[in-house]
What does this fold into?
Amino acid sequence: MKFLVINGPNLNMLGIREPDQYGKETYSDLEEKIKNHCEKKDIEVKLFQSNHEGYIVDEIQNAYGNFDGIVINPGAYTHTSIAILDAVKAVNIPTVEVHISKLEEREDFRQISFIRLACVKTITGHGTDGYLEAIDFLAENK
It folds into this structure.
């Protein structure tokens, strides 16, 4: 099995940006956590982070025919990007939306998720463990 994990804008600032909201783990900590989890489960994983919408769309399109599942935390693009939604729909790869914080308890504008319309599952508010839950879900439902 081969999964792609995509992180959107500002997730490279984990541990620095609003630690009360997102925790003290750094992005490097998150990468290591995901790699270790996948290695134990014999899952090949590619990690990708970008602050640019078009690069995220390109990465999703390049996943077509190359990955069995996608885990995506689009960051702020969750609430604004029809382009990312359309890319996920286009490749038709099972995709799980992940958010470290509980979107439903945040500002009104953060409670809107366009990407959710193309995802098989959404995990919010489980911290960085949500990524591992998403990977496990995709592996169990392949």
